[in-house]
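Mods, move this if it's the wrong board.
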Amino acid sequence: MPALRERTLKPGLKSTLVKMIGLSAISVAALTACGKKEEAAAPAPAAAPAAQAPAEKLKIGFMYVSPIGDGGWTFQHDLGRKQMEQALAGKVSTHYIENVAEGADAERVIRELAQSGHRLIFTTSFGYMNYTERVARAFPKATFLHATGYKTARNMGVYNARFYEGRYLNGVIAGRMTKSNILGYVGAFPIPEVLQGINAFARGARSVNPKAEVRVIWVNSWYDPGRERDAATTLLSQNADIVTHHTDSTAVVQAAEERGRWAFGYHSDMSKYGPKAQLSATTHHWGDYYIKTANEVIAGTWKTNSVWGGIKEGMIKLAPINSVVPAEVRAQVDKLQADIAAGRLHPFAGPVVDQDGKTRLASGAISDDQLGKMDFYVEGVASRLPKR
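Not the wrong board. Structure tokens:
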């Protein structure tokens, strides 16, 4: 494209244009000076700080072996879950699956909880142990807690309560209240956890009544109200005037109420199912433990552990003692409970003698390791352990 040519102006015209431009500039300056002074422009408003995204809630999963219902083992765990939700509102969200059998289906449920983003998972029955361990290996970034078991891993811990402490105190009441000296006990499975309770109940009863004996019927199920009721009825027909159980439903307490006998609830206060029958109950309390564990996972401070809390830690408590129990017996139980909490009394302090007369421990107290392997009945249990 050719260059543009500059036009040549005549000298007179060029001088005139220069003067006009100069005058225009002077006029603009004068007008500006004489006019109203302009206000300084307001500074632009500062940008609002970006809203901070809310911290992601910790997703927590629970797996239950029986229906929640309104009493029993699973009911108590669910109370603990709700207590944790309330205490940590805004920090956690929980999800539970109830009535999961202790079999291959348990592994599927645990795995689905982990796959769906649950970073803390509580599996609340002994038979879930191996499945929990297997899934924990596959999901190393999640934390798994198994109730009543003994296997641990880098991201898996166990927790339990010293049920036997409450059982011993129940046994003392039973030994003082029985007329027939026959006490009935409905058991789920002959594992150490259940044997501890039977033996502690027997030792508590025999500590105040050497004639007392405990008879046991196994139902081979954690939750089967029909079989639990049948077992209780059989024991009552054998002249047991007090019955208790290590199963999940309220059937045993109800059977005692219907027959005009006494009973001890378990897991929960079951007095509404046996207002006349229930003398007391060994109750379990998990909420404080769940809150503490969730806080540790949120803070990133949780480490593999084995927790076993009892009366001292508030994980085991007695339900209110029925007014039919004499004041002197209630006072005795209160003192024994304080002694257990203070470490002055152990339900399995030596000598511990089995039902065949063999001394299992001469002095001192049975260790936690020995309790975890208990496979015998103590003096005062009339039934025989089923053969494995």
